[in-house]
Amino acid sequence: MDTTGNSVSASTQYWASVPTEDLAGKIQEKIELYYSYMMSSGRVDAWRRSYRLLYGWAADGTFKSSRRISFSGEEGEMVDASANILRSLTRAMHTQITGSRPSYACRTTSNDSRSLEVVRVGNALLDFMWTEAQLEQALSQMAWYSLPSGEGWAYTRWDHWGGEPIAVDPMTGALVWSGQVKCTALKPEDVVRDIHQSDMDLDWVIVSTLENRHALAARFPEYRSEILNASPPGQWNSIRARMPSSQLYRDAASDAVPVFEFWHRRTDALPSGRHAMMIGTSCIVHDDEMPYSMLPAVPMIPSLEIDQACGYGETWDLNNLQQAITSIISQVVSTRENFGARNVWATPGTRLSSAQIGQGFRIIESAQKPEVIDMGAGYVAEASAAIDLLKGLMQLQTGMNDTVLGDASKSQSGEALRMLHSMAMQYNSGLQASYARASEKVMTLVIEACGQYMQGEQIIPIVGRGNRQTVARFKAEDLQAIDSVQIEMQAASLRTSAGRLDVADKLLQAGLITDPKQYFEVQATGRLEPILDAPYAERVLIDAENERLMDATQSAKVRALISDNHAKHISEHLSKLNDPDLRMDDSITGSFLGHVQEHIQLWGMAPPDILAATGQAQAP
Question: Stretch 426-449: mean pLDDT, rounded?
């Protein structure tokens, strides 16, 4: 595929624009180059060490584990025991990143009433996809991968073979699927890329996933033989070795086969972009233009390593401290195991037996009483102090304090505990910002994919805000007005349970919460939409009325009701007449002033109970 249509020599042609028959070799070269760099640079070793320690295994790959006690040494005298503090701290960091659902909102390039309605539909679609397309699970797993790996990826695309079967192809007999959005979390070895480009400047990625080879053979029958006999690249297993118990790909034992999808965004070098799918190492089954405006593999890289295009793992500096803690615990337990038993001294010839003194004692026979070696409280106290020191260093490096870890001091006030919790949130705000930016791109891809591939009218439920049960109807083309999705970072206090409770109490005291359900939703999620739902709906209504009053053919379709917030409507309608040009148009000013007069009359006629229920004062 030469997108330029020109004759270009092999030495100067951009590798991503080669014909389809040559593309597999180019993709394979990029995969091997990426794998070789990750292994030779020591990054794969860093990933292995981090994951092994995170899941309680020994860093050297042996089967010592925090899940059980094992024995080592020449005669089994060493007791291998561990407390996995690293995992506790990592889970605490992960909870701070993903513990509260992000507050997202679709954005459009215009603010007319139609755009506001599309925004409402887009937000409802994202609410639906949050669980239906497993966005929450994928984004949470992406954040988890980023902590020990330095980076996690979310792979979001339209799955043409997902959803529900809707028909059978009469020509091939294959099922025709409705399709659906699919989002998958990936580790860095699953996303091959240019190691000289940062995550913000990537032109292309090669994403690897495992798929059932028999399902692929049914989808692409013309390549059936190649698919059924496909195998992974040579370094596929070696770059993925994590745990001693890792279940790696095996040609004969698995129906899964590696699928590599090449995505190239639209650039000057490749104006149409490119999307190709390669199964195994040489079988190209699909080759077409790039369907999306951005690469579908979205990275979460909280911290780039200097002079590198790869992330620096948040847990890397904790690994040696975890190993030191494991060493101390093993020494203490081994010492107590070998020297902790009570010794009974007897002179030769005493003829004491174990049956006489009971189990758990040792009999030492000697002419002189042996010197007593204290392996008791003093030794354990020193070891405990060393562990506390190492644990404190781990907390210092992660910003996690005892309050976050559930070990709050009883002497501190509730306000002090909330402050400590908020300080930990602020310390990790960089992680949260990276998670938010990645989530924004993923949700924008979801909207774009639905806007391109959904067929017919769609119906999605709108549940939750104000506890109302409604549905939204839309078509794919409606979503094309959405430009992007934006996530607003909540204040640190709203990302903690104590902080949310405090905010809910203050809103209740201020009279802004009028329904117990609103109180509990703010307390549980920190989202203020339950309180802002009615004002938002009123805002949409006023904007829609203003648009109709500006159009002589639509102005008659505007009507005031006695239950309206008349003061707000009057103020918003009259603000449109602050334009000197509009004031010169008698038709437009007449429409606005006539509608304002309608509000004034109804305001004066409104009974006190309506005014009280809507929070309005008596008409002047």
Answer: 85
